[in-house]
What does this fold into?
Amino acid sequence: MKRFANKILSLFCRPEYYNDIRGDLEELYTRRIKSSTKLYAGIKYFLAVLMLMRPSLMKPIKLLTSLTNGSMINQYFKASVRSFSKHKTYSTINVFGLSVGIAASILLYSYVSFEMSFDKSYENKDRIYRVTNHSKRGDRIRGGITGSGMLAPALNKEIPEIELAGRRHYFGRPVIQIGDTKFRQTQCYYADPNLTTILEYDYLFGDEKKALEAPNSVVISKATARKMFENETKALGKTMLVNQVFMQVTGVIEDVAANSNFVPHMLVSMSTMSKIGWNWMGHITYVLLEDNVPSDVVNDKMAMMVDRLSLGDPEEGISVWYDLYPISEIHLSTDDNQEGRGNRSMIYALSLIAVFILLIASINYMNLATARSSQRAKEIGVKKVIGALRRQISFQFLAESLFVSFISVVIGGLLALFLESSFITMTGIPSSINFFSVDVILKLAGLGLAIGLVSGSYPAIILSSFKPATILKGGHSSVGSQGLRRVLVSFQFVISIILIVSTIVIFNQINFLQNKDLGFSQEAIYVVRLGKPDSEGVLKQTFLQNPHIKNVASSNLMPATGDSGATFSIRDEDGEASEDIVSMATIDDDYLDLMEIELLSGKAFAADNGTNTGSIIVNEAMVKKYGWKEPLGQSISIGGNEEGDPMENFVIEGVVKDFNMLSLYSPIKPFAFFKKPKFNWGAQYLLLKLDDRDLMETISFIQNEFESFDQGSLFSGRFLDDHLESIYQNEKKTANVFLVFALLTITIACLGLFGLATYSLERRTREISIRKVLGAKLGDIVKLVSVEFVLIIMVSSLIAAPCAYFAMKKWLGKFSYHIDISVFTMLTGSLAVLVIALMTISIQAIRTAKSNPACTLKCE
Amino acid sequence: MIEYKLGHFEEIVLLTVCVLYENAYGISIKDEIESRIGKGVSVGALQSALRRMEEKGYLESMEGEETPERGGRRKRYFTITTHGKNALKETKDLRMELWDSIPNVVFN
It folds into this structure.
């Protein structure tokens, strides 16, 4: 025991104290042996040794001393602080650039990490999949996430590898009535109990297994419960009217995280929906697989199930298949079928921008540090003569850059914290970084270290390579390859120009979309969503009595929102019949007139009211697609697929000019207008053409009339042009993000340029003064110093132009209607950068050029 | 103003060193303190206090004779320096001043 204790003691105790302490311990031990047992003395001895483990008596730890003992470290730190405060301009440029860059990247990081975090937090996230439905009919293949409502129960029964299968179905936006208050509820879905189990919903109140079992049961989220009943604890068991049907709240779930693909506010039991059959579509099916079951196995089993249950119809050429898609990949999926709402390329673009901004700021540091090297040369020379090793000089400069980068990280972090809320408004992301979490602090420290090392290593290598003899002899000028500096500056400007050109292109495109002639009128058209079925006739008459309402029409389609279509059998010019899905809308007599859709030939069915029920009006694209030379009188038919289902024919009565009823992402599709009442999908919207007087009054008239006529529904109306504008919301956000970051990059790049120009002017003060004495004008001198930078920017534009062109070409590719990127846009971008850069340089150049040569030359 | 920093334990150790005069080494100091305050003092606590005060310049030390019960190791005798005395005095003065300023009623 004693020997072991001694060993420990000798391990940690400072050698200079060892003998004394050991002596004391021995003395105590001898004394204790005399008065009690050896064991007791031994234990005491051992405990005493353990108690000796205190920092003041311990051997210093080697690694720590080399860092802390070190007057060297202190010296590095001191030198950093001194050189930092001595050169205020450079330090400010560096710290400002870096901290702005860091703030920007922190915010971009928060955006990117939010987008990447979608559906990643389920405990079973690797086992949860969503089913994709595919079908093939003839040569038409369709895919999508919605499918039959029978699929989930069948999967539960037929495939043992599937632990659970659940489904949901969109409910619409029901009008909820609780007591006397009425409101429209969004994010409302039918769901079965399995769905809430698969998606791991957390029940605060109610029974997870039973809540969604009985018909007319409703499960609401906590936030919804608070909205409806003020407090989530009061919600359970309450009843409400949902679209005039009584339903009872049977459960309250914790709010679903915003970074989920599916965020329901209200779930209605699936059993509320009547008669679900294989042809009952619109269901979205989720499955939870058993442990360690690969999705391929289940895909194969599902194919076998399709055969077993004969879901396809080979004779008719109809086949059906399903496959699984992992839930965590839905959000950023690039597969059109998955309806992922994330934008993968945007995320890549923003990550790149974040890296570039940091690089540009680091480059500023490198360039300024090497360009200023002559000022530090003497210091380095003297240090080397005294005996500093090259390594130590390198360390000094690394320490300086680390010092700057850590200050910048702190300022940048604070800046990001400060700007976070405005960033969230701009991008519309509900994310927030917890700046005070260990994780974030560690990451920031890592960032500071990385930036410090990246930007400090080049100056460290260059500056430490000075030969003391050359330096101290004098006549030394700055080192660090001038060429490399130019390359780095060009890089900064290449990035800036790319960003600026991209921003211009995005803004032009949005402008183009908004001003494009859609082929129909958008002005002063107010759209009202109808509630009660078949209410349009009465309402139309009521509205028309107001002198400010010039015309009223009804349709089942809100322009530029969604698509409705049906499968028709159509004969082309050669008489060949084919089946095709045609986008369509059912309209009434006044529609074409009100929307100012131009009739090219035939007649609008307005004239022969009521008699000509089997007629349709098609657009040019439809005529072109089927090659009809004489479109009027051609017919298309629907139905007749099943026995007893009569075939219906529709004769083309008129052709209208192409218009874009969908969105400008897609090209103009064949489109057909059907007239009511023969083909009636219900009028869901009333369109009202208003005149421009007393708009507010007219709208409140519309609202009053609507509400007194249809008490069960909520009034919702908006202007068509507002609605069309809101469609391009996302593009506008993209444009804003690009604008902000383009401005940031150019600012940081120009800061660097400013520093470089200041430096090069300082060095050339004498030259400039002599030139002035000899008669050079202000312009000549500005030209003298700017010419180098102008060349650099011109080269940068040449490099940037093709990059920007290809990147933007790709972005524009997703729009069917887009602008062409002109040389003019490219030139504007480059010129803008050139002008900004020249202004930056000129500020300093003019100041130097204006200084009195006598002052600068007198010290010679 | 207090110029010298002296913790409570340090003060006790320093005073004990004075009490023991020329016989102040590790164990004797430990025994003396223990006998006065009636509580055990660990070698570690004592040694680190001694070394700390030596670094601060309150104590000086020199090696003494070797004894068999120490396993043939020398004792290290500690003596107080002028600096240490000043520290003690100042601490005492401060206390006395405070004692003197206490109104009579308090301890009646």
Observations:
- Chain A has a mean pLDDT of 81.
- Chain A has four domains: 2-59, 128-338, 344-511+730-857, 531-712.
- The CA atoms of residues 13 and 21 of chain A lie 9 Å apart.
